[in-house]
Predict the structure.
Amino acid sequence: MDLVTNSLANIDNWYWGIWHPSIFTHLLYTLVLTQITIVSVTLYLHRHSAHRALELHSVLQHFFRFWLWLTTGQGTKSWTAIHRKHHAMTDIEGDPHSPVIFGIKAILFTGVELYRASDTQEVRDKYGKGTPEDWIERNLYSRFTFGGVASMLLINVLLFGPMGLTIWAIQMMWIPVMAAGIINGIGHHTGYRNFECCDSSKNVIPWAIFIGGEELHNNHHTYPNSAKLSVKPWEFDIGWAWIKFFQFFRLAKPLSTGPIARPVPGRSVVDIDMAWALMNDRFAVMANYAQKVIAPHVLDEYRLADKATRKLYKRAQKLLRKDEGLVDVAGRERIIELTKSSPILKTIYELKLQLLDIWAKRSGNAEEMVKAVRQWCVDAESSGVLALQEFSDELKSYTLPAPSQVI
């Protein structure tokens, strides 16, 4: 009888896996594993492979590749190619996963299917250059795509029994929900914008640490080659924290950190260095223009307007700072009304367009850029608008940064 009882007890023990942790340990184990996957995606696939913003030690690269094979089955070449295509065709026809094209529901609920549909040989050949093609890639990762996730399933079931199935399911859903859904979907649908880059990208929330910093999507689309995604003091990029951690052990080296041109106190000259500095940081310059020139004058006009016309100035700041390519017909009509009602706003808006025109038409010719920026400063200083005069002085203080500033 004791033998039977012991046998049943052993079977029961094996049924629930070889590890019998508490519920809290189950949760912690799941959280740790999903975060390793997020770190692997944001550091290796995204910042290193797709954008070359980060160098990683070969040991770290091989670990990330192996882990992603276990937890996603996604190959480096496929992921890199699809993401590069997304940046090349953001929010226009051909974007593999834009809610502007497919709708937010499609991205949230069928994001994985959209990824698979985009994973063609043509896309991999065109956008997947520079990704690993070594022996282990050819003979294991690419050849046995689902071998890794099947192995992960087996490991979890052996450790936890039936509970391992739930843990594995959460692991498998983590990237489709967080990346394919929240980042690719909500990140182009809802949120705030620090910069008016020419797409619909938005920052989701400042502290979404479970998405590896990828929630700072507008920052990333503005400076795609930056290893650091946070810009504002309140924004936290946990991926950057991991980069600094690995950098301490000489396993990682950031190659670019986004906006790097800064005003130099006492400098007041329009030259080639100044023109290229503005070109390098044009989105940050336009964000400053919106904050220091557009916003205060919209507020002044709102305060001076009577009740009948105040409605016209509501949301005017957001509209006047918006990228011209994202302004719809109704928005353009509203801008015409705004500039007709206020000569100052008309001047400010026209000079904004002139500044954008310098980058659009003269960015390849340094001498033309210098001449155009110099004329813009003359126009701003003769406008009679104090904020424009002060902004012109700020522009003249910009110069190219020293290489040592990129850390």
Remarks:
- Residues 2-254 form one domain.
